[in-house]
Specification:
This protein is α+β, with helices and mostly antiparallel strands and 380 residues long. The protein is 38% helix and 26% strand. Strand 11 and strand 12 form a beta hairpin. It is elongated, with a radius of gyration of 26 Å. It starts with a strand and ends with a helix. The structure holds guanosine-5'-diphosphate and manganese (II) ion. The site of manganese (II) ion has 2 residues, from loops.
């Protein structure tokens, strides 16, 4: 889950990272009032969960509260990369000499978090990463030891920070690490971290991505979720406790068990097709859960056939079959479906489905081949 800039910066501030004074607003008149409180010289920033807001006109410097109000009106009417701007952050404007990049993410290959710093921070960091990656310095963090003081100092020296800022940089790096660790983040980033004209470090922008699987430990953060950026299907799936991920293919899959779901996707590929989703309905799924899952799969317009691969253990095949029939009674769909049921109550399940117009298969390979073939026929 991505956090907005104002949310990320609020978390940064809890860890003593210096951020500009400012507040979030939903209307231009609120923005005007905040600007007035801050003395007029403010920056108005669109709060949308995409990068490159600056380049899209979503960030404007205002010199008075009147100007702040008019920029706020303009920005609140914008959509950036198809996302509507619902909130703006009104921050005291900063003047600065340098823009630095500082971030932490997981390095899966190293199985450790990595802190990255660059003297070439600011709006072109993606280009720096692509064209001159050597300008981004990396330092792995041992998760048991945490970020060590010498590591932060090494990065500070490597990006040519003046000596008198070493202390402050090390504190910010430590604060960012604490924010990353304590909130179960997968990304915590300050870009730019600026050296102000009175020679202080200040985090002008903030970005955090939290691990969805750890959100149960942070109910207050989970409430910050922005529904605008979410896939409808993924939200719906979460409601029913299904794990669902949309993909680009044309064959919808409903499977019980994550490993079996991945195998199913592989076998679809092996059979010349491509999965439209990953879906694990979990063990012991009830009929209403199965019905919700099928509604989600069929809501995807790309889906040309659906493959059910159910291995009955705790999950009973007849219960799944009943869910499928419930869903079919409710959703009007002519998408062909192939069912492979095996294990507990498979015969009962198959008997139930025989009444519906569904093809059945004995083996997964056979089922996948049928699903691919049926999808191909619809395409042509
Ligand atoms: P992003 O484009 O979405 O990454 O948004 P940022 O918050 O990083 O802002 C983009 C750029 O706007 C920064 O790199 C700065 O150059 C500039 N900017 C942001 N805030 C201020 C500010 O308070 N004063 C000045 N002068 N420039 C700012
Ligand atoms: Mn930025």
């Amino acid at each position: 889950m991505k956090l907005h800039e104002y949310q990320s910066k609020a978390l940064f501030a809890r860890h003593n990272i210096p951020i500009p004074r400012g507040r979030v607003a939903a209307t231009a008149s609120e923005a005007k009032q905040i600007a007035e409180e801050l003395g007029g010289n403010v920056v108005i920033k669109a709060q949308v969960l995409v990068g490159g807001r600056g380049k899209s006109g979503g960030i404007r410097l205002a010199r008075s509260h009147e100007e702040a109000e008019s920029f706020a009106t303009q920005i609140l009417a914008m959509s950036i990369k198809d996302l509507p701007v619902r909130h703006i952050l009104v921050d005291e404007a900063a003047s600065f000499n340098r823009e630095i990049y500082l971030g932490i993410t997981n390095d899966r290959a190293a199985r450790k978090p990595v802190m990255m710093a660059s003297a070439a921070g600011g709006v072109d960091i993606e280009e720096v990463a692509a064209v001159t990656p050597e300008k981004i310095l990396r330092m792995h963090i041992d998760p048991l030891l945490g970020l060590r003081e010498y590591q932060a100092r090494y990065l500070a020296v490597a990006i040519d920070l003046p000596r008198q800022l070493l202390r402050s940089f090390a504190d910010i790096a430590q604060g960012l690490w604490a924010a990353y660790l304590e909130n179960d983040a997968t990304l915590a980033e300050i870009n730019p971290l600026v050296v102000t004209s009175n020679n202080r470090l200040l985090a002008l922008d903030g970005k955090m991505v939290l691990d969805d699987n750890a959100l149960f430990r942070h109910p207050d953060l989970a409430d910050m979720r922005d529904r605008d950026v979410e896939d409808w299907a993924e939200v719906e799936a979460r409601k029913y406790g299904l794990s669902y991920i949309s993909l680009d293919g044309e064959i919808g899959c409903m499977v019980n068990g994550a490993g079996l779901a991945m195998t199913t996707m592989d076998i679809i590929k092996l059979s010349g097709g491509s999965p439209a989703n990953f879906l694990d309905i979990g063990g012991g799924a009830s009929a209403d859960k199965v019905a919700a899952a099928l509604r989600i799969i069929l809501a995807d317009r790309k889906v040309k056939s659906v493959l059910f691969n159910i291995f009955g253990g705790i999950t009973r095949c007849d219960e799944v079959a009943r869910g499928v029939l419930d869903a079919l009674a409710e959703v009007d769909s002519d998408v062909p479906m192939v069912v492979r049921l095996a294990g507990t109550n498979a015969a009962e399940g198959r008997a139930l489905l025989a009444e519906a117009r569904m093809s059945t298969a004995e083996t997964l390979l056979e089922a996948a081949q049928k699903a691919v073939e049926l999808a191909g026929r619809r395409q042509s």
